[in-house]
Amino acid sequence: MEAAQPDDRTRPEARQASPRSPLNVRARAALAAAVAGAVLGLSMVARPADDGFVWCMFRRVTSLPCPSCGMTRAFCALGHGELERAAEYNLAAPLVYAVTCFVLALALVELAAGRALLAPLWRRVRKAAFAVAVLALALAWIVGLATRAAG
């Protein structure tokens, strides 16, 4: 006689938390808060540097700035309250910085509440957010290229 096999659902390794469980919600919220918090925190500590070193591979190869060129320096300027300087580095940076602040705030609320807020919001606005992001980066890139050509 063969021994009874345990049902797959009763084995500990088969019992995983659902994506909406408070544990998974809090884990995702903690990750989002950690990343956004680190980015914003570093932007407040680091100063924007114009040391001449170019990290951007697109710019190194083509000698043209990419759509996100200057974003790091712009974030550092924004972290120090220098909005005008940030806009000179990358016109889209203030929008991206504001979204990063919003994600941090929402992730912290989600972490405290244990309720999913980021994922449902993202599902509702992702198409519009993507379009706005592409448009903002394209506009910033065109302005940056025009400014570079003019000056």
Task: Provide a descriptive summary of the structure in words.
- It is a single chain.
- With 151 residues, the chain is mainly alpha-helical.
- It has one domain.
- 66% of the residues lie in helices and 0% in strands.
- The chain has helices at residues 22-45, 57-62, 71-79, 83-89, 93-113, 118-150.
Features:
single chain; 151 residues; mainly alpha; 6 helices; 66% helix; 0% strand; elongated
The number of E-state strands comes to: 0
Largest sheet: none
Uncertain ranges: none
SSE pattern:
HHHHHH
Number of helices in the DSSP assignment: 6
Structural class: mainly alpha
Tell the overall outline: elongated
In which range does the helix fraction lie? Answer: 55-70%
Q: What's the mean pLDDT score?
A: 85
Number of domains: 1
